[in-house]
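Researcher: Please predict.
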Amino acid sequence: MSDIVHVAVAVIVNQDDEVCISLRHKDLHQGGLWEFPGGKVERHETIEQALIREIKEELGLDIVESRQLITINHNYQDKKVCLHVNRILRYRGQATGVEGQQVKWLALCQLSSIDFPAANLAIIKAVQLPEKYLITGKFTDENNFLKKLKNALDRGIQLVQLRLKEGDSSIDKVPALIQQASSLCAHADAKLLLNIPQDYLDLIDTG
């Protein structure tokens, strides 16, 4: 298997919350599938330089501002790739298929129904998550935790990662704590992710 191929990838979102995707030519690796635009990082380039060059060459867009979204390592049967994914915050121009490829804009909720290369699937999950989310920290007791959580939800947080370490809470109180956190998040139409020790998870699964 060849060395890792580093690829700069752009997630371009317009004012209507639609994402730009393009169809790979059939003679290319993973041809016939849709992809987030981008391309190989050359030896002399930084990720940012490759991103700017590729998007100009492929779509005719000038990137003004971007930020890192996610880095993905993926092994295909014939090659290893490392995708350096950036969300494009500002750009100039109208997206067109400069290289003859088909280009279209899709709503975020439609991405899951499109055929992408396997390495792109994690990008879809990342881009569909809220841009701001809360990772819970230390708390003095359960009431203190729930008060902090409610305040965050009242400020508009839409994704909460409940992170517990051994000793953060008595293990017998964990199921009730999670249930209350889940109820608060559901009421605020927010998502709750669990990042807790396996012993706590086992208690929930068997409780």
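Model: The radius of gyration is 21 Å.
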